[in-house]
Amino acid sequence: MIIRDLQTAIGDEWSARCTIISAINRLPRGRFGATLLVSEKRLAMQLKLNTRTLDDGIVVVDCAGRIVFGEETTELRERVKGLISQGSRVVLNLGEVNYIDSGGLGTLVALYTSARSAGGSIKLARLTRRVGDLLQVTKLLTVFDVYDTEEEAVQSFRKGVAA
User: Domain 47-162, what fold?
Assistant: First the structure.
């Protein structure tokens, strides 16, 4: 039996989503040639979320990694929707996010809409250049409240309460 790693043959985008563990390519040949068995294992989720609640109830969600369609957007959506349903004011700290795909953008827009419907708000802070450029090209910078720092985003919530 010959076992070989196919991960490099598949390419970066596919290997980022799953790892091909091994293939057994010398099995008894059937009517249509050799049978190829492939086993795949999901990589660890590529988005890390850390939630912090400040003294005045404002919640900061630190995001690190990639906001992409799949487990990453599902986890982000569930976590933030749970906070919204509790009436929390949410700051998404995107300072460590290096990539957002169309599914990730859709999730951010859906969260914004959910927050507005619930009478709340989501603010974005610390956009990386790449994420900022993406939001500018897609005109989403005009939709979200975006701040250079987490502190500015938190202060904007506090000013809104004081007004």
Answer: Transcription Regulator spoIIAA (3.30.750)
What does the domain layout of the chain look like in residue ranges? Answer: 3-42, 47-162
Alpha-carbon span 36 to 138, nearest angstrom:
43
The 10s digit of each residue's pLDDT in 89-143 is: 999 999 999 999 999 999 999 999 999 999 889 999 999 999 999 999 999 999 9
Residues 6+ apart with CB under 8 A from 18: 40, 41, 42, 43
Q: What's the CA gap between 39 and 163, in Å, rounded?
A: 58
Q: What tokens does 87 get?
A: 């009436």
pTM score of the predicted model? 0.72
